[in-house]
Design brief:
globular, ABC transporter involved in vitamin B12 uptake, BtuC, 2 domains, 68% helix, mainly alpha, two-stranded antiparallel ribbon
Length: 420
């Protein structure tokens, strides 16, 4: 009884704290009236939130207390790694098959396809940042800068030189990689919080430059009429003998372009994943992992930390540039408001919540955070509150990420004939 009483007291304190926070956020709502702004008190909603927090806190503590009283069975690390690898492979192949057939499922309408395309864009961004954060262990809070560089590079080159998407896409990645190298040089000797602050400042510098260089970037007005990609020279236009639907003898539908853009980002994401899995097994990938685990030990092994960090920043930025080019051609309009710090925070949250270094974990986290946020759209102004609550719930349930398994690419084991 003493334990339950202590848990109830702790839960009551948590409920009171939640009530103090919920009163100004949920309990007091401003509404426009004929005489001006008026406050509509909704204290019942605030009380319900506080009760939910207190009850949830009590149930979590009760579950933890019961788990500690049971006999603990220690699972070997090798068995845990094997299970996580099996789950990752199963989820990976299942997600691949589902992604291929998604546009042809009965419930797939334009809204579903738009959300799926958005989720895949963040999956690609998460995999790009996972190279820097998950593999190399470099905390980057300004990853949105490379996203912006890729988007503006594509928009400006395509608009001024009238080049196709397939020509501008690699150029956008190269420009973003160049900026990744520019960022890498000043932070070669920085670690941890200092590295995060510098990368955060770099992202804000890029955004401010885009906002104020009106003659080049359009400033706050942004860039519009960005060329859209075509299907091997066949545009998705309503009229024309060379239109996509005319060439294949189909009735015109706006879904043709939506499905094409979905498969385009789907293929780009698969290329990013294949490249990352391959490069992890190469010497540069092993150098990233060594640098992540211990920079001093990696120096002693002869690894050049300068080149290692620069390659991580450049390659991670390159994939961010590819995603930015796709974002620009999909939207047809870009502005500095699309590349704020919150975007970097969301991408980093996807990597951390999915499990740093885990490819399939990034996919699951992107689906939960981005797709889940779309499900909470009906909550209107409480949407970001639900987003934060979802993140807190994941970190309480899985503090190291959904599929946290920093398994090294190369391990030293015993040979069959060895003994001892």
């Amino acid at each position: 009884m003493t334990v339950i009483a202590e848990q109830a007291k702790d839960s009551a304190i948590a409920g009171l704290v939640a009530l103090a926070l919920a009163v100004p956020i949920v309990g007091l709502r401003t509404e426009s009236t004929s005489s001006g702004l008026a406050i509509d008190p909704r204290m019942l909603d605030a009380l319900l939130v506080a009760l939910a927090v207190g009850l949830g806190h009590f149930l979590i503590n009760l579950a933890r207390a019961r788990s500690t009283t049971k006999r603990t069975v220690v699972t070997p690390k090798a068995e845990v790694a094997r299970r996580i690898k099996f789950i990752s492979n199963s989820l990976g192949w299942g997600a691949l098959g589902f992604g291929v057939v998604l546009p042809f499922l009965p419930f797939s309408d334009r809204y579903i396809m738009d959300v799926a395309t958005l989720v895949l864009t963040y999956v690609m961004l998460g995999w790009g940042l996972n190279i820097v954060v998950g593999l190399a262990g470099l905390l980057d809070l300004g990853y949105v800068a490379f996203y912006a560089v890729g988007a503006y590079s594509y928009a400006l080159i395509a608009a001024h030189f009238d080049w196709s998407f397939w020509v501008c896409l690699p150029l956008a990645g190269l420009f973003a990689a160049f900026f990744g190298v520019i960022l890498g040089f000043p932070v070669l000797r920085l670690r941890g919080d200092y590295l995060a602050i510098v990368t955060l400042g770099f992202g804000e510098i890029i955004r401010v430059v885009l906002l104020n260089w009106y003659q080049f970037t359009g400033g706050p007005d942004g860039l519009s009429r960005i060329p859209r990609p075509d299907f091997f020279g066949l545009p998705f236009s309503r009229t024309g003998d060379d239109a996509f639907h005319t060439f294949f003898g189909l009735d015109y539908s706006s879904m043709h372009r939506i499905i094409f853009l979905y498969y385009l980002i789907f293929i780009l994401a698969l290329v990013t994943n294949a490249f990352t899995l391959r490069i992890r097994k190469l010497p540069v990938g092993r150098a990233w992992e060594a640098l992540r685990e211990d920079e001093i030990a990696s120096r002693a092994l002869g690894i050049n930390p300068t080149n290692t960090k620069l390659t991580a920043f450049a390659i991670g930025a390159m994939f961010g540039g590819f995603a930015g080019a796709f974002f620009a051609t999909r939207q047809g309009f870009i502005s500095p408001e699309s590349f704020t710090f919150i975007e970097s925070a969301v991408i980093l949250a996807i990597v951390v919540l999915g499990g740093m270094g885990s490819q399939i974990g990034v996919v699951i986290a992107a689906v939960v955070l981005i797709g889940g946020t779309e499900l909470f759209r009906e909550l209107a102004e409480f949407r970001m509150l639900a987003f934060g609550g979802l993140m807190v719930a994941i970190m309480v349930w899985r503090p190291r990420g959904l599929l946290a398994n920093r398994e090294p690419t190369v391990t030293l084991g015993k040979k069959p004939g060895d003994s001892g």
